[in-house]
Task: inverse folding
């Protein structure tokens, strides 16, 4: 049972400082504590969680997998607490430029329809939107917010989940009329399948085969750099594409694309997050306004 006298956010803050500063001594100095007090705090935290967070066998602080997971969640929670406090304060005006980096698919199908509503609420904010499926460095790209798909790598960035979408295989009516409609997973081997060329793409298409999920490798054919290019290729009749459903929902409804093999679709999902640099001072009101708006309004 939880105890009301435990200062969980305080423990998280000390633990995060220890990780980011590389040790208990540095964290103790930053938090105005003694190194032994920091060590005891982490030991109490581990005892309460029932998991080792830090390996103490080396001079350098080493996180366990559980420690890595706790660190990442702690950073997010502390940022949310700070954001809640800033939201409750008055006098900060949301104004100025916000630079957004996003994929073409998310930018065209999810972000673009929301822009006018956001700017109506925040007329003193201007938006600079760039499209790429490449993972950019926010500092190098001078981006305030990046929208990223798929699992997030461990980093010092803060992430807010925006939603998730399942994947669907589609083809144009013209392609199916010419080459036939695949009825089984094995039929896909005789069809031209469009792949993604960027390094983060997953090799092959996952498909259900009985009670198992297999991964169908993509034969050399057509490779494109992003999901929106794949969508246009599929619309043109060049081949079959496997895409996030939100990117082709309107095309399916209009009959421009036909969903295929839905009975063996594993319904794997792709999550989308807004990531931003959350350390080193208060988050600007203009950035916070965009993050709050996206979290409340993105629908996939």
Result:
């Amino acid at each position: 049972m939880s105890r009301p006298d435990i200062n969980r956010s305080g423990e998280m803050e000390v633990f995060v400082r220890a990780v980011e500063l590389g040790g208990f001594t540095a964290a103790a100095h930053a938090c105005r504590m003694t190194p032994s007090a920091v060590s005891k705090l982490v030991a109490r935290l581990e005892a309460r969680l029932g998991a080792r967070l830090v390996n103490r066998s080396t001079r350098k602080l080493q996180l366990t997998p559980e420690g890595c997971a706790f660190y990442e969640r702690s950073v997010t929670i502390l940022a949310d607490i700070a954001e809640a406090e800033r939201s409750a304060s008055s006098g900060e005006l949301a104004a100025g430029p916000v630079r957004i980096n996003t994929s073409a698919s998310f930018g065209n199908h999810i972000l673009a329809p929301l822009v006018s509503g956001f700017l109506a609420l925040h007329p003193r904010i201007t938006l600079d939107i760039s499209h790429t499926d490449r993972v950019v460095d926010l500092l190098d790209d001078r981006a305030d917010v990046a929208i990223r798909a798929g699992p997030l790598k461990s980093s010092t960035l803060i992430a807010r989940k925006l939603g998730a979408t399942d994947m669907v295989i589609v083809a144009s009516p013209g392609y199916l009329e010419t080459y036939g409609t695949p009825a089984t997973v094995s039929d896909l081997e005789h069809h031209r399948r469009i792949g993604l060329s960027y390094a983060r793409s997953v090799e092959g298409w996952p498909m259900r085969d009985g009670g198992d999920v297999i991964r169908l490798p993509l034969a050399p054919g057509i490779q494109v750099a992003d999901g929106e290019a794949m969508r246009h290729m599929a619309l043109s009749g060049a081949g079959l594409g496997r895409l996030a459903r939100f990117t082709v929902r309107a095309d399916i409804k209009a009959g421009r694309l036909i969903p295929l093999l839905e009975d063996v679709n594993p319904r794997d999902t792709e999550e989308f997050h807004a990531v931003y640099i959350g350390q080193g001072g208060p988050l600007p009101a203009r950035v916070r306004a965009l993050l709050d708006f996206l979290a409340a309004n993105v629908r996939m």
Notes: DSSP finds ten helices and 13 strands in the chain. Residues 101 and 146 are 5 Å apart (CA to CA).
